[in-house]
Amino acid sequence: MKTSTHKKVVKQQVQPESQLATADGKILRVDGLEARTRLLDAALKLFAESGYAKTSTREIAKAANVNISAISYYFADKAGLYRAVFNDPRTNPNVDPAIFEQEDADLRTILTALICTFIDSLKQGELMESCMKLHFREMLEPTGLWVEEIDTAIKPSHLAMVKFLCRYLGISKADDDVHRLAISITGLAISLLISVDVIQAIRPALIAKPKAIDTYASRLVDYALAMCEDEKRRRHIVNIY
User: Fold this and answer.
1) Which residue range is the domain that position 75 belongs to?
2) Same domain for 215 and 172
């Protein structure tokens, strides 16, 4: 008796056809990663310029030169795309609390990791500028993502940093001055990100090239070290008297 073997054919999910038009009108296919990145970049610029409510998915797809169906495929909907844009690690990196748990790392190493988490995003150029505009717009026209970022990312990393500074200062419990120090150190990097327009008008060479940005980051680490050392010295003097 013969038995017949039935082969199962597994139908793979096909990504939506993403296309872009060349100058001569020809249509070219783009791969999934490229299409997703094009959507993120186009959406960032449009959301930053017009806000979430006034930006349509059709505008975004047109600006990205991809089919509008790609938005639902990669991000589910407009809200999903906005969330992905807002949290894009290329322009909005989160400080990993684990940075401050490296017991064998010295103060400079940890401060460098902290500062560079923010400053390296400057190397994204116009994308970073659009990201800052998007954050300002989110504060003025809130969708809830800024509050969510504070609760889920900024606050945990701040508390981890405060705990680390307590170890450095040799104290068991954080007071207001430790929190001030932590916020001030982070502020060194944040102030640079929000001062891009001013720097470009006054001294553009300071952030014109990746090497210049690395030098700026190194100087900020020096300033942060001085702040930590001064706080330690101040506490020592207070304890003496």
Assistant:
1) 19-86
2) yes
pLDDT digits (tens, 9 = 90+) for 160-199: 999 999 999 999 999 999 999 999 999 999 999 999 999 9
Q: What pTM does this model have?
A: 0.82
Tokens encoding 210:
């990746």
Q: Exposure of 206 by Cβ count < 10 A (0-12 exposed, 13-18 middle, 19+ buried)?
A: middle
Contacts of 163-168 spanning 24+ positions with Cβ under 8 A: 163/100, 164/100, 164/101, 164/110, 165/228, 168/107, 168/228, 168/232
Residues 18-21: contacts with CB under 8 Å, at least 24 apart: 18/66, 18/67, 18/70, 19/65, 19/66, 19/67, 20/65, 20/66, 21/65
Beta bridge partners of 28: 20
Indicate whether 167 and 125 sit together in one domain: yes
Residue reference for tokens 């006034």: 54
For 4-46, give the DSSP string. PPPPPPP-PPPPPPPEEE-TTS-EEE--HHHHHHHHHHHHHHH
User: Do 193 and 233 lie in a common domain?
Assistant: yes
Q: Average pLDDT of the chain?
A: 88
DSSP tag of 123: G
